[in-house]
Amino acid sequence: MANVPQVVFNNGYTCPAIGLGTWKSKPGEVKQAVKDAIDAGYRHLDCAYIYRNEKEVGLALKEKFDEGVIKREDIFITSKLWCTYMHPDLVEGALRTTLSDLGLDYIDLYLIHWPQAFKEGGELFPVDSQGKVILSPVDYVDTWKAMEKVVDLGLTKSIGLSNFSKKQIDRVMEIARIKPVSLQIEVHPYLNQEKLIDYARSLDIAVTAYSPLGSPDRPWAKPGDPHLLEDPLLKTIGEKYNKSPAQILIRYAIDRGLIVVPKSVTKSRIIQNFNVFDFQLTAEDIKTIGSLECNGRLCSMGDVHHPSYPFHDEY
Ligand code: A2P
User: Fold this and answer.
1) Which among 90, 156, 157, 238 has most CB atoms closer than 10 A?
2) H or E stretch covering 167
3) Probe residue for ligand 1, chosen from 211, 258, 269 as the CB with the greatest number of ligand atoms within 8 Å
């Protein structure tokens, strides 16, 4: 089985550098995908409550535990706190729901999914009569205090952030008793995130790259949008190593020291995406690929009127 690099967190726990992404993986597809991934050697799953498929991920895990293919401690599992559960009183319950759906008694990493809190207690995307998201006044620094409590309770080994800007990370760092171990953000050659990655590193926060393949299945993709996987530069570099553009993109993250969570529900691609440990990009390749940067953010969480919207900041 491939020797997967492990990223060491600032609390000493380690995380496999590649994990299976499960955003957009539909119930009816995700169970088989998780089983195929575990059989292929993946030991890291990237989940979230809002993906609405954690129950099915849990069924796949149960099968693999029951078959004796893996034990709980062999696999790293991340989940994320959704925006309607950011009130400090709701965090423990939200994580307990995720644990029950996944069929686990702890996860390895729990992230605040977005810095923006939405109105609690109803729809996951509560909207007013004009279709605008209804906000909650909860401040993510107060959420962080509740995240620390779920570590104390043993419900998660580590906690971290997702989609936070530099300024927002700083605010959490100022009040943190338990430091975030990681920051999960969109990273690919069209949005190479150099500044934010360097900044997170300076704080000893590991970075996980989501949408590493450019998420061609994102629900809001429009005809004519650039298609990262078809970029000619990636094809050319791929030819040099006899690898596909997807494999080049995955190495682009790993060779920058990132953790990467490519999503697929197709067995052959799940296997292909893991078959990246017999080659390495050169510093020159990384620089060339990085020159595709075009501020090409794909996941901007449309509603920008929230005071904690992260993407108005430079980085
Ligand atoms: P599918 O799940 O149908 O196999 P991202 O991880 O950036 O969100 O991208 C996920 C998208 O990329 C999905 O549409 C997935 O398709 C597709 N994909 C995953 N792996 C590959 C691959 N090796 N080659 C081409 N497309 C891929």
Assistant:
1) 156
2) helix 166-175
3) 269
